[in-house]
Structure formats: C-alpha cells, structure tokens
Amino acid sequence: MDKHLYDQPITPRTESEKQAVVNRLKRIEGQVRGIQKMVEEDRYCIDVLVQISAINAALKKVGFTVAERHMHHCVSHAVKSGDGDDAITELLEVMKHFSKS
Amino acid sequence: MDKHLYDQPITPRTESEKQAVVNRLKRIEGQVRGIQKMVEEDRYCIDVLVQISAINAALKKVGFTVAERHMHHCVSHAVKSGDGDDAITELLEVMKHFSKS
Amino acid sequence: MDKHLYDQPITPRTESEKQAVVNRLKRIEGQVRGIQKMVEEDRYCIDVLVQISAINAALKKVGFTVAERHMHHCVSHAVKSGDGDDAITELLEVMKHFSKS
Amino acid sequence: MDKHLYDQPITPRTESEKQAVVNRLKRIEGQVRGIQKMVEEDRYCIDVLVQISAINAALKKVGFTVAERHMHHCVSHAVKSGDGDDAITELLEVMKHFSKS
Hints:
Chain A has one domain: Metal-sensitive repressor, helix protomer (Methane Monooxygenase Hydroxylase, Chain G, domain 1, Up-down Bundle), CATH 1.20.58.1000. Chain A has 3 helices and no strands. The first copy, chain A, has helices at about 15-40, 45-80, 85-100. The interface of B and C includes residues 68, 79, 80, 85 and 89 of B.
C-alpha cells in the first residue's frame, strides 16, 4: 500500500464509470453464487469448471478495463510529471501477478 | 450440456465436501463485493488490480479442487467402464479454456 | 524425478507420434530464433510481444497434446492398475504450474 | 503491422540490451531443442510437461522485459507527444493476448 505512487486515481472515476464496473462485478458476484448452488445441487464437475472459467475470463476483462483507465490517467499523468518510471514499475509488477492468476 | 459424459458426479459429493467448496466460494463472493466497494470509494487502480488477481487465483484453486475430485471419481470410473477416452477429451477441453481464463 | 510414477510413457510413443511433436517443436525453435533476429534488427517492441505470445500459445498446444496422450495411456493404465490416485496427483501438480506459465 | 504506432523502438536498443535478450532467447532455444530430444528418447510425459512449463515461464519473463522497456521508452514518449492513447490501446491489446497464451 505505502509503496503505491498515488492514493487514488489521478482523475476521479465518474459516477457512470463506477456504475459500469460495479454492474459487471455484481454480475460476477451472481455467477459466483450460481456456482455455490451448482455444488449444493451436486451438478456435474465439468459444468462447474466451465462456469469457473467464465468467471475468471469476466474478471480478467474487468481487470484490463481498470488497467486501461489507469494507464490513460494515472500512468500518463506520472509520465508527464516525471514519475513515469515508478508508475511503470508499479503497473508491471501487478500485471505479472495478474498474468499468472 | 448434452455432450457431457455424466449428468452428475459419479460419486455424489458428501455434505462436508460441498460445504468446503461452498465456503471458499462464499469468501470469493465477499471479495467480489469488496472490489465493488473499492470502486465506489474510488480506491487506487493498482489496489483494485491486486484484489482481482487474488480472486482469480482463489477461483483457479477451487477449479483445480473440482478437477482433482473429478479425476479421482468420474474419470477413473469412466476409464474402468471403457468410457475413458470420452472422459479425457471432455476434461481436456475444459482445461484448455481454464488455462486461458 | 524419483517422485514420478513411471520412467517412460506406459505405451511407447510411435515413430509418427514422435515425429509430429518434434516437427511442431522445430517450428517453435525456428520462431524463437526469429525473435532473436527481430531483437538484433531492433524491431518494434509490440511486434516482438506478438511473436512471444504466438510461441507461448504454440507451446501450450504441444503441452496439451502431451497431457492428452499421457491421460489416454499412462493415467488410464495407472487407474486400471490401482495407481490412479498417484497418477492424478502427479498430473494435477504439473497442470497447476502449466496454467501459471 | 500498419496499425502500429512506431516502426522501431523510439530509443534504439543498445548492443548490451540486445545481447541480454538474445542470450535469454538462445537459452530458450536450447531448451526447446532439449524437449525434442526428450520426445525422441521417449522420456516420461510429466518430465516433458515440466520442461514446457519452464520454457513458457522463461518466455513470459522475456515478454515482460520487452514490455517494460517499451513502456519506459515508446509509451512514455508517446504520452509526452500526445499519442499516449494510441500507445496504450496498442499495448493493452497485445497484453490481453499475452495473458491468455
């Protein structure tokens, strides 16, 4: 946390940006609940795995949306302010974890 | 769905097995809600990405647990019953999607 | 090594099976050499990254081919011989690494 | 190709930078040849899969090195020159492929 370049997005997320991400996360939350139901109903393993893959793919999409906005605003701002190197190191570290997850 | 080898796990999941998976999914569901809150509070992008990576990793772990049980029960049963090839093709197809997600 | 269930594939690879895999690996080897040339010629980073993604995807395909044959022969044999649990644990461990790579 | 922002890295790679990447790729090339030999010698499937995972991981490391340099030079330059949005879109597209590979 303390190693982070900024505390918040350099350009605050607008209400409609927040809403778009939250809506996608609410759908993902519903999908996670759906898998709980599938397990409780003893549904076939392959069907459960297909659903887990779908959620992971949906979460990665959200992640790339967040990363893209981060680059357009925070990283770009950092580059122009002379803090580009720190912003790039910070982003790449998280992308490495992301690509393994 | 109709292309699946079985309709349900060949050995029904026990109550404690179900509970263990459902508990992990409930924790993941809570984490997804946590990210919604982070977005609403306009938390820093990198923190959001770290959380998304953590959820993906947790979901993959659940997926491997499901795949492992599936192999010990359904695939093993299929192999012994002469349906091994179908079970293996079915599993590998879903693992390919899984590994890209 | 010593923790492995078998020393060799339970059904030896046929010459044509070997040739098919080796041919795909030779093509991948050529692609890796191609990237070296791109770097030496100072080609654009994005083009280099596209090529690296293509090689990774090709290697994963080879990996899934190897895993599939392994399941049809070694794992199936182990299941029928009463060593199924060891074979499944062994395979899943390597699939976990594979899915992060 | 024609959709790319630049034709070459905005700061040419130095000889030592080229050498470092080429050396790592030569090692990877050797590992790919090593797998060919393993297949020809009919080595155990799991050993082959372990090696494939190792190569994938090594290639991803090279990819992240290339991406990092790209951000420090090309993307940063583009941001300062007013072409940041194109550079970011271009990079994220390739990172999405990369994360699935």
